[in-house]
Amino acid sequence: MPGIDECLSEALAIPGVLGASVVDWSSGLLLGAVGQEPGHGHEAAAADTTEAARAVVESGTFTAKESGRVPVEDIIITAPGSYHLIRFLDTSFDSDVVLYLWLDRSMANLAVARLGLQSIAERLVLV
Amino acid sequence: MTGAEAARPALAVRGLPRRIPARGGAQAQVRAGVVGAYAFTAALARLAEARASGALYGSAGAVYLRDGAIVHAESPCAPDLGVRLMACGLLSPDQWREAVTTASAERGVGGHLVDTGRVARGELELCHLLALFDAAYFTLLPDSEPDRFQPGATSRLGPISRAVPAQRVAREAQRRRAQLERAWPWDDTDAGPVVPRSEGEVRGGRARAPTPGQLAVLAAADGSRTPVQIAWHLGRSAFATLLDVRRLAATGRISMPVRAQAPAVPAPARPVVPPVPPAPPAPPAPVVPPVPVPPPPAHGGPQPAVPPSSDPSVALLLRLRAALEAHL
After folding, report:
1. DSSP alpha helix (H) spans, B116-211
2. Where is the composition biased (Pro residues) (chain B) (predicted)?
3. Per-residue model confidence as pLDDT tens digits over B4-27
4. pLDDT for the residue B139
């Protein structure tokens, strides 16, 4: 049963991953990070991840007809040289936590990365 | 012991927070030179620098250190690990009580819960870290003062998540104060009852939709619960609830409290020793915090000159300004 650090180590093993972090998107708090720091560092990335998560969850469009405490599964951003994956965690207790993955597009496979991240997100909350 | 007691014996036993005695008491060295704003934060920084181990008690909570890093924090304002795990139904009060009473010193309550298969290690670490930063936000409020440092004291929960550098916790508390200020620069909604407004009163059809968390806050707002009481009721972060309430205020989804004309000096300047709340009937433990949140009065930023008004057009203009600032 993995803890936060083990999950982040596993995320680093996903092909093409440059960096990974765990972020509380209700506050923007960085809960853990590994690998390279994107842009202006892990904490700045946590703040940006928070803004992206909020924008999607608070939109009337992307969560239309969705219900439940976590109305979104992933946010995927593709850029010419990179992929950014944000995975919402479904914890038993009340929280707003996401896993964030930054990948090198020339090395990564988007589908593989998404499935890998999903598996880590599930095991993080698995008894 | 009841579920509610099980949830917060440490605070009840140690009687936190308390009024500190006049300056110059036995613990004067803890406070020496650090009275005034950010006194607790300054005392914490000194202990961290000295790589101290033990518990620093203050007027709004306590922080536990190991070799100068923070391993645990608790505050009467912030729902703790037990409350959060019980509120969602993951643990019954009996299971939490059993974990607290039978856990060995080495494994601690966290280790016991993981070993018995009740809570996933990842979830436990996340919940503990979130509760730590939540409690630290209140404990490190600008006007909270250090009471005493007890060397060697450890949390009754035992080791759970990785220790966090004290500097990082202080920086996060500061970031959170700025975040509240940005969301809605008035603290009127922090301490008073949250009163939702009917959908028809909410203006601006293109306003952002409430998040699931904000909807839960609105659903729990019965017109008498304060944000901190809502946080305890839902077993969610008290800071996130404060922030959600301010955002709801900015979008006009809750009523602004009418300013009390009464005492110029805020009545309970500081929360006093909370009595242990009566036993809740059943899980999810509806633990009601005994103290209202001490409103953060001394923000780093400039205080707004104009208080929220009961005049709807003025209130609309204020919301408009807050929304514009939020998009700058």
Report:
1. 121-139, 166-183, 188-191
2. 280-310
3. 433 333 333 222 233 333 344 434
4. 97
Q: How far apart are the first and last CA of chain B?
A: 52
Six token digits for residue B323: 């929304």
Q: Which residue spans within A1-127 are E strands per DSSP?
A: 17-24, 29-35, 74-78, 82-88, 97-104
Whole-number Cα distances in Å, B55 to B16, B48, B72, B158: 12, 12, 9, 13
Q: If pLDDT is split at 50, 70 and 90, which confidence band does B148 have?
A: very high
- Of all residues in chain B, the one with the smallest CA distance to A69 is B212
Ramachandran class of B114: left when φ > 0, alpha when ψ lies in -120 to 50, beta otherwise: alpha
The answer to whether A113 touches A14, Cβ cutoff 8 Å, is: yes
Of A27, A63, A89, the CB nearest to B239: A27
Question: How many domains is chain A built from?
Answer: 1
- A57: distance to nearest CA of chain B, Å? 6
CA distances B268 to A48, B167, B295, Å, are 38, 30, 10
Question: Does A78 contact chain B (CB < 8 Å)?
Answer: no
Range of the domain at A61: 4-124
CA gap B235, B216 in Å, rounded? 11
Contacts of residue B164, defined as CB under 8 A and 6 or more positions apart, other chains included, come to B69, B70, B71, B129, B132, B133
Question: What ipTM was reported for this prediction?
Answer: 0.94
Residue B197 burial (C-beta neighbours within 10 Å; 0-12, 13-18, 19+): middle
Element (H, E) at B249: helix B238-250
CA dihedral B214, B220, B226, B227 (to 10 degrees): -30
Asked if the Cβ–Cβ distance from A26 to B213 is below 8 Å, we say yes
**Least confident stretch, A80-84, B167-171, B193-197:** B193-197
Strands of the sheet containing B54-58, edge to edge, are B146-151, B54-58, B61-66, B69-74, B164-165
| Distance between CA atoms of residues B18 and A78, nearest Å | 53
CATH of the domain at A57: 3.30.450.30
- 3 state DSSP class of B130: helix
